[in-house]
Structure formats: structure tokens, C-alpha cells
Design brief:
By secondary structure, this protein is an alpha/beta fold. The chain is built from six helices and six strands, in the order ααβαβαββαβαβ. It has one domain: Rossmann fold, CATH 3.40.50. Bound molecules: S-adenosylmethionine.
């Protein structure tokens, strides 16, 4: 995988806060999309032992994290740089009686110890990261040996989300099923 560190968001910042975050949470939270998150949660966690630690980075409103936690087999943490998303995700998890530890933080400086997680998931966000190489290195650092990182991205630029004020569900970018899935075995992810 070719990754370059880019500063293209320097002036604007990659985070989605306030009304943009609330709009995003609304358009990604339709019944059919929530069903999709439920299916993905089952697929991504298949084979994980009970009690495994799962981290979703750039979790946004946290729909996927909530569905993984709803399985009640894992210890789920969701990290996002946006304070609004952390608030939205924490509120929805609490309202649904599901336990997810939502934390605010930057994927380029993940606020957890090395070798902490059995599964790391990153959906529809990697192409927006200002420091993609650092993000990968950080995900590798906090992943346990033998753990898996699944990085899934979108079929069209995520920037469009900012431009489409009242876009309907049909025009939403799709999350590709398996962009990158890598196990931690050595000093860095393979082929990166
Ligand atoms: C298009 S949204 C995707 C959200 C969610 N993963 C989903 O599938 O709906 C991109 C997310 O990446 C987050 N993000 C961008 N840069 C980040 C960074 N450096 N660290 C953590 N989160 C970041 C944004 O705040 C936003 O929640």
C-alpha cells in the first residue's frame, strides 16, 4: 500500500464537528445502514475469543462500535478526533443500554498502551487522515501480536460528504467490504 503523509487539511482540519457531525450521524443512521453495521459487526468479529478487546478508530457516530458491543462478547472502545461524535456515540450507546468506551483522540497519537487490542477497525476514514503513515504505525503499535486490523474505505472521496448538504441515502459513498485486512506478526504491517 502506498501512503504519503499529507497536510491537505492543515487549514481546515479533518475533524467533523457540530452541525456537520450531526448531519453525518443522521444520514448514516438509516434503518438499512444500521442493518449493514450489524452484519459487519458479526463478520468482523467472527472468530474473536470472548472478552477480546476491540478498537474502532475514527468511529464517527459509533454505529459499528455499538453493534459490536451489542454482541456482548467484547470490550469495545471507539476513538474519534471529533468531540461532537464522541458525545453523539456516548449518548446513543447509553440510550441503547450498550457499553462502549467512547474516547476523543487522534489516530496519529492513539492514547492507549502498546499491544492492547485484538481487533482494530477503521471504516470510511483512512483517506481523510492527515498523517496516514503515522496512523498505520499507531494502529500497529496498539494491536496485539496475532491481532487483526481491518481498514475499509469508501468508493468515492469522503470530501463529498462535506459538499452534499442534503444528500439522500442513495448518493452516499459505499464502504468497500475489505480494503485492507492485516494481521500483526512482525515489526510493521505486511506489504505497507
Ligand atoms: C467519514 S467519517 C467516518 C466515520 C465512521 N467510521 C463511519 O463509518 O461512519 C470520518 C471520521 O474520521 C474522523 N477522523 C478524521 N481524522 C481523524 C484523526 N486524525 N483521528 C481520529 N479520527 C479522525 C472524523 O472525525 C470522522 O468521524
Amino acid at each position: 500500500m502506498q501512503t504519503t503523509e499529507t497536510r491537505r487539511w492543515r487549514l481546515k482540519g479533518p475533524e467533523m464537528e457540530g452541525p456537520i457531525a450531526r448531519w453525518y450521524a443522521r444520514v448514516r443512521g438509516s434503518k438499512s445502514q444500521l442493518e449493514g453495521y450489524r452484519n459487519q459487526a458479526a463478520q468482523l468479529t467472527a472468530g474473536l475469543a470472548d472478552g477480546a478487546r476491540v478498537l474502532e478508530v475514527a468511529a464517527g457516530p459509533g454505529y459499528l462500535s455499538i453493534e459490536m458491543a451489542r454482541l456482548r462478547r467484547f470490550d469495545v472502545t471507539a476513538l474519534d478526533i471529533s468531540h461532537t461524535f464522541v458525545e453523539i456515540g456516548s449518548d446513543s450507546a447509553r440510550q441503547q443500554g450498550v457499553s462502549v468506551d467512547f474516547q476523543q483522540g487522534d489516530v496519529a497519537k492513539i492514547p492507549f498502551e502498546a499491544d492492547s487490542f485484538d481487533l482494530i477497525v477503521c471504516q470510511a476514514a483512512f483517506k481523510n487522515f492527515t498523517l496516514p503513515r503515522t496512523a498505520l504505525a499507531e494502529m500497529h503499535r496498539v494491536l496485539r501480536t496475532g491481532g487483526t486490523a481491518a481498514i475499509q474505505d469508501m468508493s468515492q472521496p469522503a470530501e463529498r460528504l462535506h459538499d452534499e448538504g442534503d444528500a439522500g441515502e442513495a448518493s452516499q459513498p459505499r464502504v468497500l467490504p475489505a480494503s485492507v485486512r492485516a494481521s500483526r506478526r512482525g515489526e510493521s504491517f505486511p506489504d505497507m
